[in-house]
């Protein structure tokens, strides 16, 4: 972290957020946006050269973000104690045990900020005690706020320690003052781990909210995965569809399919789509989403990708196109080998980590006869070091 600025660079700008740089969320708010995207593009190129062993990576220009601020559709806050009572915020940069009381976050909308403040005021009025991570005492742990950015629907999840020490009706009344509220959930976390991906109890409303992407509607439950930048998720999926090069005759595998966003975006241009994801909740959403959009040529299954591929091939036949959207660790050895053995002619790889993408590309090229045809970075997360990439690998 910078200690003092002796002479500002031409690329330095004034960070708009009052919590910068103490909050670890947006590290690059003081760097001009053009410089941020240039650095991310170079980050992907460097990984493909250095780790992937590709002298001249076939990289297309980065897709910049539609919005530089207020772009997130989901935020997870931690409760903390202040002299005024409970507050909500994010961990300070580099600290697991200290939470910054946030008054306005530039990554969410005015609605998101107002909901957080309303829950803070409710916690103070109820005299509820925030959880202390170091001491493992207290009650209130996290607040998750999720917005359907294209539908205006809001979901709120409160996470507490064990026991029901709050008045459900009181919390519901506070949140229903926001007409966007559709779904209110409560989760209990009895472990020391700071997690929000937990079973939920529905306190009020629908068990899911809806979001709209690429002209389709998607139901989103509390633990289902959805890209956190709605506008850029659409760009990402459009790019994946373009790279897939579908003609209407293909069997498509959608691996790490989440709630079916990519596979269902491709279904109208494919013969069949077969999705696999380890999260049963996401798969339940994907099946509902196929129904919701009247898509009859897509099926989704719960399971580990590596372990499921042989069964899937026996059921669906080999794919002409496989789409993978793995977690940050990339394709594991087993998943990569089993996928490669299918010898799918076109492999569309959606990556959230350039280093693991580059490592996987190197192995697919060296061991399995694939070639990286094109790759394009997408800036989903301005002011952070994260960058997504869509890559196309083909097998002659």
Overview features:
396 residues; alpha/beta; seven-stranded mixed β-sheet; 16 strands
Number of helices: 9
Q: How far is the first residue's CA from the last residue's CA?
A: 47 Å
Please state how the strands of the largest beta sheet are arranged side by side: 3-2-1-4-5-6-7
Number of distinct beta strands: 16
Radius of gyration: 22 Å
Query: How big a fraction of the residues is strand?
Result: 25-35%
Looking at the structure, what is the overall shape?
A: globular
Level of helix content? 25-40%
Uncertain ranges = none
Task: Describe the protein in words.
This protein is an alpha/beta fold and 396 residues long. It has helices spanning 33-50, 110-126, 168-176, 230-244, 261-266, 280-292, 305-316, 333-341, 354-368, and strands at 74-82, 85-91, 99-101, 140-148, 153-160, 181-188, 201-205, 209-213, 216-220, 251-255, 272-277, 298-302, 321-324, 346-351, 370-378, 388-395. The protein contains nine helices and 16 strands. The chain has a seven-stranded mixed sheet. The longest helix is centred in the first third of the chain and has 18 residues, at 33-50. It is globular. The mean pLDDT is 95.
